[in-house]
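Technical annex B. To support the medicinal chemistry partners, we prepared a structural model of the target in complex with iron/sulfur cluster, based solely on the information shown next.
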Amino acid sequence: MKAEILNLKKEKNAVILAHYYTPSDVQELADYVGDSFYLAKVAQQTKADIIVFCGVRFMGESAKILNPDKKVLMPDISADCPMAHMVSDGLIEEMRRTYDDLAVVCYINSTTELKRKSDVCVTSSNAVKIVKALPNKNIFFIPDYNLGSFVKKQVPEKNIILNSGFCPIHAKIKAEQLYKALEKHPNAMVLAHPECEQEVLVEADFIGSTADIIRYAEESCSYEFIICTEDGVDFKLTSDNPKKKFYYPEPRPCCADMKLNTLEGVLSVLKKENNEILISDDVIRTALQPLKKMLELVR
Ligand code: 13P
Ligand code: SF4
């Protein structure tokens, strides 16, 4: 199957992008593996004709918006991020009516419709930097409450209004589970994703995106880590650091949508060129603005 995928990829000038939460065999075969921000940049710059995006829907849609001339295919088009939908109807308009200098800051884990209503997108790796760089005092941060709270703590000079969205996978990681893991591994450092709840984040030695967590673990002189994020990162962590030990809160956090990306699915979309992300030119034009602004502000 792997050989068939590689042949088709060459024949069709396709590139395979995969998020760190996808299954190990998909990460192993992909051309680029990374966090949401890295994958968005790769999608924007690729010269391939076809992008096979192994991730969830908002990631495939962002790739299409950033590079509309390319065909973007997903191994399973039903792979979705529940948090991406978690902003109540009319709330953005209501906030805009309340504050005249408001910036709507949209975590990239959001639907294309939400992006269109926003001023700038952010990812977990650049949210603090971007919010700091905005001239606006009033910020409405959507959809994630936990990432929004993390940013609020780092940027106290702004009035950051939070929304109640959350990641159901990270929300299941509770402080008690972390304490149990720490009892078993008292010397381990705690590395957490900012989508975790505050009770977990206060115990963390480091908070960052999936790529930041992987980088931190690699550069750290410690040998033991408790990882508070989805367990797909384990593939990269253990293959790059064979002498280090990585533990997870139990039960191990697992995003079922990310795991819908299989090698069978990759092969099938490469063969049939189905499961294509289709977005009208009009929608692409408006949704591109906040994504472009994110890339500009980070630069
Ligand atoms: P990263 O940008 O850190 O990879 O996060 C994406 C995500 O979906 C986290 O749950
Ligand atoms: Fe969405 Fe959470 Fe899955 Fe990330 S881990 S894709 S935020 S449901």
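Notes passed to the chemistry partners:
Residues 191 and 203 are 9 Å apart (CA to CA).
The longest strand covers residues 14-19.
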